[in-house]
Amino acid sequence: MAISNIRYGEGVTKEIGMDLQNLGARRVCVMTDKNLSKLPPVNAVLNSLAKYGINFQIYDNVRVEPTDQSFLDAIRFAKKGEFDAYVAVGGGSVIDTCKAANLYAASPTSEFLDYVNAPIGKGKPVTVPLKPLIAVPTTSGTGSETTGVAIFDFKELKVKTGIASRAIKPTLGIIDPLHTLSMPERIVANSGFDVLCHALESYTALPYNMRSPCPSNPINRPAYQGSNPVSDVWALHALRIVAKYLKRAIRNPEDREARANMHLASAFAGIGFGNAGVHLCHGMSYPISGLVKTYKPKDYNVDHSLVPHGLSVVLTSPAVFAFTAQIHPERHLEAAEILGADIRTARIKDAGFILADTLRKFLFDLNVDDGLAAIGYSKADIPALVKGTLPQERVTKLSPRPQTEEDLSALFEASMKLY
Amino acid sequence: MAISNIRYGEGVTKEIGMDLQNLGARRVCVMTDKNLSKLPPVNAVLNSLAKYGINFQIYDNVRVEPTDQSFLDAIRFAKKGEFDAYVAVGGGSVIDTCKAANLYAASPTSEFLDYVNAPIGKGKPVTVPLKPLIAVPTTSGTGSETTGVAIFDFKELKVKTGIASRAIKPTLGIIDPLHTLSMPERIVANSGFDVLCHALESYTALPYNMRSPCPSNPINRPAYQGSNPVSDVWALHALRIVAKYLKRAIRNPEDREARANMHLASAFAGIGFGNAGVHLCHGMSYPISGLVKTYKPKDYNVDHSLVPHGLSVVLTSPAVFAFTAQIHPERHLEAAEILGADIRTARIKDAGFILADTLRKFLFDLNVDDGLAAIGYSKADIPALVKGTLPQERVTKLSPRPQTEEDLSALFEASMKLY
Questions:
Q1: Which residue range(s) make up the domain with A23?
Q2: Which SS3 state, helix, strand or coil, does residue A338 take?
Q3: Which residues form the Fe-containing alcohol dehydrogenase-like C-terminal domain (chains A, B) (predicted)?
Q4: Is ipTM > 0.95 here?
């Protein structure tokens, strides 16, 4: 496995102009979204660029929870600008959009579906050289600054899918905890749930030596290799940070220790899942986001309905881990213990229920919507949710336990109400 | 920080021919030493190269604990061979020699001292492109497969020094636990002590944000950055593996679980210290090795006196951590607990003594030579040992506690006898 470059520390964003100078960049594209464009993280980047005399253009039209159309808009801007470096300042939506813009600008004859994951797209390998991309995350969830994944909503099919290739991994991730101080409460919570699920899913994913078929050449190994001794280190470490700091980070914007630790945990979990992969919570989350009806979450200043990614992932987590625990129950129990369960008298066969209960209690304490019903879904939606999950086999096949359509149906049903 | 590629698994060495094909290699240099050249790890590599039709030449003249002269011999071979890729199969001596050969063959007009660490050499930055190097470690200690460091004995000055640059970091490290099964007992022990000290030193090194002067440009940061939240994860994880598995791995060559875990711990600790750095145990070890008199360790089949690197490092560890613990005593106490100490009633001001005692007990149980006196040194040698430590400021300055010549003298004296 290869791991991205990251740089960590309060205020390290101010070096970004020097980094771009070191890269020999002369025309830089700064990507962000409309809300962020007036906030301190973008200011810090622009001040540094000005200080080091770096020419740049700003694209602030990134859509929160991007779509194929919003990706294409950014790609058009990137192609026209002929940039020699990119800086993405934002959450996963911004960083993912910037990865796609960099990729397609470097590959001008490609059709959009060429690089999109099969079976929705053609899943072609990336062989063109990309420009350097520096990612400056402003949320603490996606870990996108450390991964080779870019996710979007494919409007025609009403489903989320993405592009996955080591080639689109950022050149450098700047983990500057100062940027977390402007995050509203629910964004801290929802992005934190993404970290929680990255850690839990990558720790419980199908082990790397049990995937099949085994590619005949190591070069053909997928980005998501299954759980392994290296990703396990990151997953467990990130989970411990979540257990210790997520509630504090949500409750108090001034708790710099908690917010800094969650910012780092997001990158750590990203390194883990970017190598091991995720499975059912993520696979099932894509139709939950893609089929959104009228839900508008608190603290998100957007003009469209959306289910924040972290929320769409975490709502099925109790059902998912109750389902997967029959494989590697000891890992499920270990995760429950890290999250605060007393497992001294626990029976190993109850591992799934114990982890599920621990997660429910964790979510209840954090005042999370009571299941899929609370964000607008009913039993009648389950067939569409299942249908939207089936094309996500890139991740669902990493579930330690194989699942039928009936299983998926039952998992969605069990996630309608949590408390 | 950037982290090397590693691949882990029993038997993964058999893919190396395919890796070289993927790299487009046509003339490969395989480096090893005379003992290893007849053993299974080298056979596994050569069989894979033959299977995939890769042309290669073998250099098996690597010296265990290499010198400037043995580096130069390997460099001459590399220059003459005009290789387009390198494979190093062996312990740290082999991998380090191969890094140097690759570097100087790619930089034919350079003088040998150009890239050697200042103040002994000129410490010039590496700007030439190197050929791919795949490292296949056969010991479990050095972590050289994950680092940009190559260490040798500079005969003229009777001191160890080295080359340190991210540019010489191997392209890929193949961590194949099968190779550990042929390791003799003392080699498992001594290489394991190197892992132990990598973990302890990098965890207690001067923190990354307390180094000074702070380079004005991030590109000028040294390879060794001080302890930081990323290297801490690796150091602690490696230390836990050492505590659980090192004794088992030494005692029983058939304990595949223990040997596999130590093989992985070596790479993990390498990722940690390759980023954070090491400090006094390593800095003081170079003269301990360099000034060797007549000591010939058990299980090393060589025709010259030598102090194995891991042994030279660990013998001062009780004295060193008793000395450094006044800075970050809680980290010293945490390390002692991981290594088995009961710290429930410990006082924080005793942290250094507790860790020192824990280390002494650990070494006694493993039947390690009783201090520097047991490997041929006496009080009369201390001035020379101190003098040999002074040029190692690249690492000694990472000690959390600054040290005078008198301090070094006292540390050597306290290390003459351990039990």
A1: 6-179
A2: helix
A3: 226-416
A4: no
